[in-house]
Design a protein that fits this description.
Radius of gyration: 25 Å
Number of helices: 19
Order of helices and strands: HHHHHHHHHHHEHHHEEEHEHHHH
Shape: globular
Strand content: 5-15%
Number of domains: 3
Largest sheet: 5 strands, mixed
Length: 401
């Protein structure tokens, strides 16, 4: 049996052997079944490497996969949008958008690296932006856009130009297509035009009201975050957190998420020296507010840099594949409830309100934070409902701050 594929000859031989094994209806768990699984993995690995080596750009990668799968251009319509768009993409008259790349990656199993090569995306300009896809009507309804918009299709470009103008030329293409500039933690399909608009709104608010001092990264330590967590005991602690962070040069912005974005918060560099924590309060609970805040502060202190200027988080999703997300999850928990305190507390093993309140009192944090830790650790989100502060955060930010 073939144990490695190093050439086209090996590749074809492996395909023939796979076909033979399938014809013999081999069973899982048998030596033949294990061999079939191994050959399949070897073939998939070789195909991915071959695409990356042989495809100088995403279009060649797409054509290579089409040839492999005996696809016609019409077969790409569900992934790209229309026959005319397919024709323009394959003839290099229309740039591949991020949404197209994601659909092709999922539908044709083309490696994302092949579709999102930096040299291909680098020169994308405003001609690549589909301006009417921004959620303009929702932005008008929220007061983000003051223009009167009667015809989105024809007014979109001019309206969005004025909206983005304070952020500088080329902001929209970079926000939409520069894959290296952000990381997204999510398992759901996102509307990247809505996400870019939300990011812009956050940055515009920060640029209009910058923090009172310059940010000094060395100040943002776990000890600082422990002290910040003490504000959770106040009835309006989340609002006090804005002033507390402003004193070290970090802006805290609360901006509800736009439809089809599903994020809880983000760490953003609005400018090289202006870090921002942006929270959506998608889940209106005290425990959620403080965990998301700490999570994004860890990103600011350890992960944001010149080539990674935004991290968006859907914290309903476990992300064990990304070291930065794992670190932010762990240290956010440590900032709120140090592991050493957790292990020696009855709350670590009991779902008891008295145990919750005892640990919260000792750490000088809101009981909701302890209750939230118990619920998350046990993956049981129906316990201690009365202690997590449901419905007590969003009302504090009924007006933008």
């Amino acid at each position: 049996m073939i144990t490695a594929i190093n050439s086209e000859v090996d590749y074809k031989a492996a395909l023939a052997e796979i076909e033979q094994l399938i014809d013999h209806n081999v069973r899982a768990g048998t030596p033949e079944g294990d061999g079939l699984n191994l050959l399949t993995l070897l073939v998939q690995d070789y195909e991915q490497k071959r695409i990356e080596i042989e495809a100088p750009d995403p279009i060649e990668a797409i054509k290579f996969r089409m040839e492999q799968m005996n696809l016609m251009p019409r077969d790409l319509v569900p992934l790209i949008g229309s026959r005319s768009k397919v024709s323009e993409v394959l003839s290099r008259k229309r740039p591949l958008t991020l949404s197209m790349a994601r659909a092709l990656h999922k539908g044709l199993r083309i490696p994302a690296k092949a579709l999102l090569q930096e040299q291909f995306l680098f020169d994308l300009g405003e001609e690549a932006v589909e301006w009417e896809r921004f959620p303009i009507r929702e932005m008008v309804a929220r007061g983000w856009i003051k223009d009167k918009v009667t015809d989105v299709r024809h007014q979109a470009k001019d309206v969005m130009h004025r909206f983005f103008a304070p952020l500088g030329k080329g902001w929209a293409p970079n926000a939409l297509y520069k894959q290296t500039h952000y990381y997204l933690r999510s398992a759901r399909q996102m509307d990247f035009y809505a996400l870019a608009a939300w990011n812009a709104r956050v940055c515009l608010r920060v640029l209009q009201t910058p923090p009172s001092v310059k940010f000094e990264p060395s100040v943002l330590t776990l000890e600082f975050m422990h002290e910040l967590a003490h504000l959770s005991t106040l009835s309006d602690g989340p609002r006090h957190a804005i002033e507390y962070l402003d004193k070290i040069g970090v802006s805290l912005v609360v901006e509800p998420h736009l439809p089809e974005t599903y994020i809880d918060g983000a760490a953003i560099l609005a400018a090289p020296d202006r870090p921002v924590v942006a929270l959506t309060i998608r889940h209106d609970r005290i425990d959620n507010f403080w965990f998301v805040l700490m999570h994004e502060l860890i990103h600011i202190s350890r992960h944001l840099k010149a080539d990674l200027t935004a991290i968006y988080d859907d914290l309903d999703v476990e992300d064990t594949t990304n070291a930065q997300e794992c670190e932010a999850d762990h240290l956010a928990g440590e900032a709120l409830i140090p592991d050493v305190e957790w292990r020696k507390s009855p709350a670590s093993s009991l779902r008891n309100p008295d145990a919750v309140k005892h640990l919260a009192s000792r750490l000088r944090i809101h009981p909701a934070i302890v209750a939230g830790r118990i619920r998350h650790q046990r993956k049981s989100y129906r316990v201690l409902n009365r202690l997590v502060g449901q419905g007590k955060v969003r009302r504090l930010f009924s007006e933008p701050v």
